[in-house]
Amino acid sequence: QDTDEFILPTGANKTRGRFELAFFTIGGCCMTGAAFGALNGLRLGWKETQNMPWSKPRNVQILNMVTRQGALWANTLGSLALLYSAFGVVIEKTRGAEDDLNTIAAGTLTGMLYKSTGRV
Fold first, then answer.
1. Is the pTM of this model over 0.70?
2. How many domains does the chain have?
């Protein structure tokens, strides 16, 4: 069967462009960051409250650590993905080409901007 599954407008590409993929990248990074941060918060909360008896204050302290770390990691990875995607789209539109150089340049610019804020 050689027929296409979907009806595309005349001149449309069969693949998604960098702009369409940006939304998936940003959302995926936010969700990954939230999951990683929640696990890290659970580990830290468990470690910090190991001397406390099992009670409501201990539960609340662990949950606070989980939500705090989850939000921190989600914001960090989401911001990095947003920068990377924005640089990628701008470079692609500026150059008018879709190749690996755009990806390398977007990653380099994202890393440079992230490190320029003085974070270690």
1. yes
2. 1
Model confidence pLDDT, tens digit, residues 39-83: 999 999 999 988 888 889 899 999 999 999 999 999 999 999 999
* Dist CA 68 CA 6 (whole Å): 44
Examine residue 52 and state whether it is found in any structural domain, yes or no.
yes
Q: Which two tokens stand for residue 103?
A: 């990806």
Which tokens is 29 given?
């990074």
Q: Are 67 and 41 in contact (CB under 8 A)?
A: yes
Q: Does a structural domain hold residue 105?
A: yes
- C-alpha 117/C-alpha 120 separation (Å) is 9
Q: Where are the alpha helices (DSSP H) in 6-55?
A: 18-48
Question: Which domain, by its residues, includes 92?
Answer: 19-109
